[in-house]
Amino acid sequence: MLHDEPEPAIPELFSWEFATDPYATYAHLRDNEPVRWTRLPSGVEAWLVTRYSDARNALADSRLSKNPDHHVPGESDEPAHAKGKTGIPGERKAELMTHLLNIDPPDHTRLRRLVSKAFTPRRVAEFASRVQELTDQLIDRFAAEGEADLIHDFAFPLPIYAICDLLGVPREDQDDFRDWAGMMIRHGGGPRGGVARSVKKMRGYLLELIHRKRAELPADPAPGEDLISGLIRASDHGEHLTENEAAAMAFILLFAGFETTVNLIGNGTYALLTHPEQRERLQRSLTEDGGDRTLLETGLEELLRYDGPVELATWRFATEPLTIGGQDIAAGDPVLVVLAAADRDPARFTDPDTLDLSRRDNQHLGYGHGIHYCLGAPLARLEGQTALATLLTRLPDLRLAADPADLRWRGGLIMRGLRTLPVEFTPERSGT
Ligand code: HEM
């Protein structure tokens, strides 16, 4: 660079440019203010933690509570609180909001143990052929067209149908779920209007379904039993799970597993389409040598590290004064761990801004860390790997149908994902 050339400007936090590419801003924060007090777009202030070692420690620190009752709002937070617009989920005291991501031990330990019994890696593995079938059916719908919006036509419906099937929502009701989930994603989880109505409808439906399944539950579990029946069974063996808790559990599985997976498929496909050399490597590995999945497995983890769906971990609140990265934090302060910044920290990852699908030393924080580590990681891996492998093998010349500069990213605080992903490809001939 010539010495009189100005330094490129770094996008301001939460600006439009930042939503498109936040990584230069995060690098600047990591180097200069690794634990920074920041006003969020909602008006509420919180600490942003951006270095990998601080982030990992904070995620496992029991002095950081998930219970929003520990939040002590600052004076400048008042307007946002008065309008009920902090973005902190606990401000909506709906029953569905008392779930794993808003509670601490011992309640968290009890509920997580119950759901872990029902949501085992084995149950997920048994589900592999169904995910493949769903993936193929969705691709069948647009394969002959030669073009698609991969978010609307593929990344959005796949996880909602998959989770509905896993939970045991009957097929004829799944389109209602798709509509309710669509409403929540479009409006970013705000408390009013359509979102509140969708949450209410979902809750009513889930309570009724749980009630019905409890009444019809056979004495012994059948092979491939659905997750809601598994939850009821777990609660019937000594440990108590109320119908409200079971509904909140079904809701968090749906909510935590939906938009994340949409964005895993969206961000992952986008990264592959904009890194042709890596994409060709992956495509070759899937089609040659009888289809080796090693690169697919390491590659999916790398896509999560490089541009994962969860940009910031969910809210945490200091229950006592503590220090993170040399910075004093007061009791009651909100702390937001920036997973996307930690996962590009050069102190932890070699060439962190390079996408390397074969990266081995890759303990990324994309699924979190500690007691709230993603419960759905095995399902996310199954869906992500199936979706990407099937897209690349069935539509081998898949390419972006838009200039990357014209693509729009959703501006939400926690999630990172594209609004649309227009692609084109040679149409599949029917019968192929
Ligand atoms: C597709 C990619 C996914 C990513 C990147 C992801 C990421 C995460 C992260 C970062 C957390 C921890 C949040 C925190 O500590 O603040 C988390 C928790 C959780 N995830 Fe996922 N998730 C994904 C998919 C899923 C799926 C498919 C499900 C279920 C169907 C799921 C269910 C959950 C649940 C229930 C928790 C809360 C666990 C607890 O608090 O004990 N996730 N996830």
In short:
This protein is an alpha+beta fold. It contains 17 helices and 10 strands. The protein binds protoporphyrin IX containing FE.
Can you count the helices? Answer: 17
Query: What's the number of extended β-strand segments?
Result: 10
> Could you tell me which ligands this complex binds, including any ions or cofactors?
protoporphyrin IX containing FE
Assembly type = single chain
Specify the helix fraction band. 40-55%
Please state how the strands of the largest beta sheet are arranged side by side.
1-2-8-5-3
Main pleated sheet: 5 strands, mixed
User: Which class best fits the helix and strand makeup?
Assistant: alpha+beta
Overall pLDDT score: 89
Low-confidence stretches: none
Classify the beta-strand content into a percent band: 5-15%
User: What is the chain-wise order of helices and strands?
Assistant: HHEEHEHHHHEHHHHHHHHEEEEHHEE
Radius of gyration: 22 Å
* CA(first)-CA(last) distance: 51 Å
Structural shape: globular
